[in-house]
Here is the input.
Amino acid sequence: MRQFDPFLGPYPLSPPTNFQKWVHLTNFITPRLISIILPREGKVTNVSSSTVDEEELLKLNDLKHEENDMILFTKFDLKKSWRPGATGQEVTKYSQDKSWLLSDLFKNVYNNDHKELLGELQLAFICFLIAENYAGFMQWKNIVLLICSCQEAIEKYVDTIFTDFLDVLKYQLEECPRDFFHNIVTENNYLTHALKNFRRNILEVLSTDAISQQNLENLHVLRRRFEKFRGFLNQRFNWEIVDEETAREEEEEEGEYAPVVVELSDTIIDTTFNKS
Here is the structure.
């Protein structure tokens, strides 16, 4: 390696967990993906602009950027997640369920390869984690929200996108400080809301009747993995990922309609009657 490039910095292979972490954070990123998203020889800085939200980034950085300094993330609009010419019913459905948008991107951008989608998710996180690039954070956030907001697509991609997504997200969150989601950038903690929605979508799909046996087994695997993921979130960030309906029921039980616990007295009540 040193003969190839004597100026390479030594990578910290000790302890071995350092290298394993890097592999888990980058295992879906390919040279092709880097060449598409980072055309400037794979270089990225904390002021590199992006196709995701160029106007907002320019306001934040107050800088003019060269075109070849731009990060070419896949651009999509979460607020317009239905097909062109959609009926009113379709607009209503797919404004909540982002499955059409995910399927469209999967087919036309990611070449029906879930690894390319998750690779962009990983690359966006690396741009944010290593280069402290705000555009990377925005793209990471958008892809997470997109995947968590799908219901119809879960059955279709259960053993590809969604199963691997949980692994990718877990390894990424392991690198985030415990108080990361309390700072100004991540105020209101959109991630807990997204994950509650994701859990609810999994349960909704499981409750439907027309599911093949193979998909049903895969869905149960996905649910078990999500429950394990919930345990990790609770341990690391003290999050309780419960859907809104369950949360409301719990709030009601703690309020005016909470069940009353009656402690029985040690006194024995004599209920016999005097028949005199």
In short: The chain has eleven helices and no strands.
